[in-house]
Amino acid sequence: MRRRCHAAMTALAIALATPAMGQQAAPTARQSDALAAYDRALGDFKSILAERRSQIEAKRPLPNLPGQALYLARVAVISSYKDLTDAVPSRIGKPNKFEIPPVYFDVGIEPLVDEYARLFEIMEAPPDGAQASATPFKDVVDLAVAIARAKGLAPVHAEAAGRISLGLFFAETNGKQNVGNARSNTYMGSLQTGPSEDRNGRRKWEAIKPAIAAADPQVNARDDKEEARARGTDHRFNHWTGVRDGLMNAHAELFAEIPAIVKTLPDPIDQMKLFELIQIIPTPTRSALKSGDLLGYRVSSPTIMKHLRNNSIFAFGQADRARTSASFRDILGAMWLFNRKFERAMAKYEEIKPR
């Protein structure tokens, strides 16, 4: 470790060389501290990745919430790198395949983040007995469009509901159906709902089902089939009923706002971000929509800021974490970790959207 730190300090000193003078400037205390913090965070990240991989391959029991330590280690790496590039701007490197702003991410650790994703895929595999769908992406779109039409939306806005809902599926699970959750013992399934949210969604679906049957008999017939299939099981692990109940629990009630939302937020990815915020901070998001100034609406509750940070928004680096308030314009801009997921959702939607 001492040898590695010495080499890193030498590299930092070289990076601080003054071109005009051809001399090396000694790193400041802030720069040295930032480099040391990043080195520690990177070492910790590598260590927890290796530990989980070893446990899985040896088939040893994993700790409760086995993904939480991994998640926090990844946050620490990105945070400490942002602090390093703030202190030493020359450390800002090349773009990366994850589309993370280079000021937050060293392209050289891409393989570590790939391993992070592989471990989560193993730890969040669907449980035995989960009822998969052969058409998981189409199911999400079909359900959302049918719900929107039953609520009276015009076809163009019902299609937007389908596209947005597919974005939610990618945001919550990377487009994988019936998954578990390595960071929570409560939220599960294709839209990551808890038992109470699932029950609430089922009640709301039962109330709208006659309108669904009238608006889209095919969706209604599919629903009857999946409801019978899921009887006596956890509905969150039947992809169709899990998505259905997840959408009805919180998101469907805002489908009526889609015409106004798309006018304020013409970028489809921003629309997806807003509906994802219904998942993360539902009450402030509803208040923002009702305020008449969606983008200017500001949140300042420490609890709300904590929820945002726990979902990788304003979570990285001292400057971001020091924020005590933010407008919805700020929040949407800070949701850059969701961009790649939503871009994948957009591409998938283009493949399956109604013609």
Give the helix/strand layout.
Blueprint: H1 2-15, H2 29-57, H3 66-87, H4 110-123, H5 136-150, H6 155-173, H7 195-215, H8 217-230, H9 239-251, H10 258-264, H11 268-280, H12 282-290, E1 298-299, H13 302-309, H14 318-321, E2 326-327, H15 328-334, H16 339-352
Antiparallel strand pairs: 1-2
Helix pairs in contact: 1-2, 2-3, 2-4, 3-4, 5-6, 5-7, 5-9, 6-11, 6-16, 7-8, 7-9, 11-12, 11-16
Structure description:
The protein is mostly helical. The chain is 63% helix and 1% strand. It is built from 16 helices and two strands. The protein has helices spanning 2-15, 29-57, 66-87, 110-123, 136-150, 155-173, 195-215, 217-230, 239-251, 258-264, 268-280, 282-290, 302-309, 318-321, 328-334, 339-352, and strands at residues 298-299, 326-327. A two-stranded antiparallel sheet has the order 1-2. Helix 3 packs antiparallel against helix 4 (110-123). It is globular and about 75 Å long. The protein starts with a helix and ends with a helix. The relative contact order is 0.11. Residues 1-10 and 16-22 have low confidence and may be disordered.
